[in-house]
Amino acid sequence: MKRSWIYRVVVLVVLLVVVIFAAKKQTIAPISPVEQTGAAEVYYLDAQSQQLVFESYEVVGNSKEEQMENILLQMAKKPQTEGLVSTMPETVTVLGVSLEETLARVDLSAGYEELTPGQKMYLRGALVWTLTSLPFVEQVELSVEGVPLVHSNQKPLGPMDRYNLVINQPIDPEPTNALRILTLYFADAEGKTLVKEERTVEVNANQALERYVLEELIVGPEEEGHTQTVPKGTTVRDIKTADGICYVDLSQDFVTGHTGGTVEEYLTIYSIVNSLCELDGIKKVQFLIEGEKQENFKGNSEFGQPFSPILLEE
Fold this sequence. Notes:
The protein is α+β, with helices and mostly antiparallel strands. It folds into two domains: 34-148, GMP Synthetase, Chain A, domain 3 (2-Layer Sandwich), CATH 3.30.300; 177-289, no CATH class. The chain has helices spanning 2-27, 64-76, 117-131, 209-219, 253-256, 262-276, and strands spanning 38-46, 51-59, 84-85, 94-100, 103-108, 139-144, 147-148, 177-187, 194-204, 236-242, 245-250, 284-289. The strands form four sheets. It has a four-stranded mixed beta sheet with strand order 4-5-6-7, covered by helices on one side. Helix 2 packs antiparallel against helix 3 and helix 4 (209-219) packs antiparallel against helix 6 (262-276). The protein is elongated and about 70 Å long.
């Protein structure tokens, strides 16, 4: 009888413990993984060393998008560490941020375009390294007023991460502009030969002169009696010079926008070649279309080998 009583007491105690534990468990709301992100890194500019450094930041937010918004708001605030400054000036605001799998898309206001090249570089670096410190972000893609950012050669920057956007690299001094006389070649009024036209343009010290030459040819002639040689709508995808050869990578519009014809092709090709070879260090020009060599232009001109300039009668 005594043993039976003890057994009943033990059972009641166990049941009571289970009930109490269950009740306590129901009163504690589960914490989602998103709310438990923890510390991330917010990058600022060290005004003295001109290096990007970070402060730890305890991320909060009920969704991943909210966490990204909060960490970007923190980027714009004054850092706690003396000597650090925000890379995001008051003239630049974040218009929107979204997440597609592990790619964060950030849309900036038009104030970004008013920044100097150095300021843009620091801001891009801080944005990418700050957002990729979140465990769910691997890459960042930037736009301004909905338009994706592009390189100076008009190629989209595309997704950036910590591997293709290395911070704290030496940067060039802020560019200075100067006037430069370019010698350009267009077709004459009859479209039979090339004629020379000198043009004074404002150039940037950090921009290749070759690009200015191509862009002015695309704009077209200014002098009366000179006619266009490069199809309107042509864009310069890339341009660089190595070992005396200037490699000109043009968009497909250069081909599709051309009327064709043996003389017309000849004038177009050599207006570019002769204009570029007026620059020091350029002896020949190699054409590329959309990054690839093309064996012929419009069916009448061989196009796969570098071109040397032609001599014109004075």
